[in-house]
Amino acid sequence: MSSAVARPWWKDVVCYQIYPASFKDSNGDGLGDIPGILSRIDYLKDLGIDVVWISPMFDSPQVDMGYDISDYERVYTPYGLVNDMEDLIYARHQRGIKLILDLVVNHTSDQHAWFKESRSSKDNPRRDWYAEDGTRLPPTNWRSYFSGQAWEYDEQSGEYYLHLFAKEQPDLNWENEETRKAIYHSAMRFWLDKGVDGFRVDVVNIYSKGVEFKDAPIVDPRFYEQPAWCYYANGSRIHEILREMNAEVLNHYDAVTVGELPHTPDPKKVLEYVGASDKQLSMVFQSTLSTSARGASTNQGRSVSRFASDSPAYRTTSAKLLSLMLGSLTGTLFHYQGQEIGMINIPPTWPIDFYRDIESVNFYKTMAAQTQKDPAELEYVMRSLQILGRDNARLPMQWTGGKHAGFTDCETGPWTRVHDLYGEINVERQVREGKGSVLGFWKRMIRLRKEHAELLVHGAYEGFEIEDEKTFVFGKRESGEKRAAVVLNFSGEEQEVELPVYEGPVFQVGNYGDAAEKEKSIEGRIRRLRPWEGRLYLAGC
Ligand code: NOJ
Question: Which residues form a coiled coil (predicted)?
């Protein structure tokens, strides 16, 4: 069998992540919803999207924007009903678009029936479904990702329970077989039977916490609570658990999984999850790059602002630079809503009151208390949030230059503020501008990626000049003569780069419209790139 035949369906796809609260409101309540998503399928199809991933749309008190699920088998009512999801599954499949959901099963909401029963008494049959401990002191010094302690004393049961995220998100006990079976049934088979094609798996490597809880080493002496992921990330039974999940559920549906894999910088460890001979997950998000900063732990700043420049002069060029890079890198391409129009981070002038995310708000409160509201510290906190905070990527999708960016008709406006620059950065305007817009550029890159999939999606990657912090130069090789060279300038100054030694590289696409013309006069392999400039060359194609 040739490798092309053996390839799973999800290798070549372009997947688009939708944040349901902020994508499109269909009923004027200020919050995005499932019918809103349905109304934009053709937009996604036109962009070249093959798979849509919807962030949690399940029933939830929304303490952590749906990552606190109170019923896996119901939809959060303001988003719609299970019927709406069925309509969406049907409509997507009619257009050849697949759908994946978020699988959030490290924890539930404290409002889930399982937790309510579990805490009701020490001899409740579900008492062991969550991670608890009966000592009167917090069992360990573990810190929650959302600031403060990871243990909460529960008056009702007289014991502590573990919550690695908010206290309203108790951690499930994966040691208990009945719990695992219930998860497989309620959170997975329920949706797979309805035709969903797989899951993005939330914090997949922290389920196995062992049974012996120890204090974490003190790395931040200012606080009692300390990060403890060395004890629970990639725990001793995690691979066994994932093999079971495949055998019991996933293998029966040819379902795809993409696991969120924090705290795992070592590629050898990553391979233990995705290696072909012992597959546990189809693929993973390896977040070392995006989480290496103080403050936010699971941050999602907008890529233009985070990795390039969102200044008025360069934000369009920067958004195209990132498109060039992502469109030519090996692997399955994941795209976040609004990236296709180059949406940028929250303006630096917005105060903390405009932020909604529990992670951002708790971080601010903790630092305010810790520093007696020291203005310099708080300014630093705000600067961090403006770069890293998850609110940045949660602002409403900018559809038009009209009221509330065309996201909602709600008189009082959307649930969270629209970006000040929606008049300049929006879909309607970029559709009008056509090819020269960021949206036009993304469409072209996605088309090019699909046309040259053997090279761009599957080709072998080679890095060049890897010590250079301002440029990113890489090549792709397909078996045979086909080659791609990608030269990217990640700085606001001109940079010189050297093209790899390929026979007759031909300029294909660049983020400065005139690059093709300029190329004609250039001899040899040296290229001078302007600020934030990127180019893609193909050879032998
Ligand atoms: C990790 C997710 O990326 C984040 O958005 C969420 O808040 C936590 N898991 C809790 O589920």
Answer: none
**Domain 3-108+178-357+392-433 CATH class label:** alpha beta
Q: Three-state SS across 425-488?
A: CCHHHHHHHHHHCHHHHHHHHHHHHHHCHHHHCCCEEEEECCCCCCEEEEEEECCCCCEEEEEE
Say whether 42 is catalytic. Answer: no
Closest-lying ligand 1 atom to the alpha carbon of residue 55 = 5
CATH of segment(s) 113-162 = 3.90.400.10
Q: Does pTM top 0.90 for this prediction?
A: yes
Q: What is the CATH number of domain 459-539?
A: 2.60.40.1180
Could you say which of 152, 225, 260, 478 is catalytic? 260
Residue 260: active-site member: yes
pLDDT per residue over 499-534, tens digit each?
Answer: 988 887 888 899 998 766 566 555 678 899 999 999
Write the pLDDT tens digit of every residue in 75-116. Answer: 999 999 999 999 999 999 999 999 999 999 999 999 999 999
Kindly report the protein residue whose alpha carbon is nearest to atom 10 of ligand 1. Answer: 67
Ligand 1 atom with the smallest distance to the CA of 67 is 11
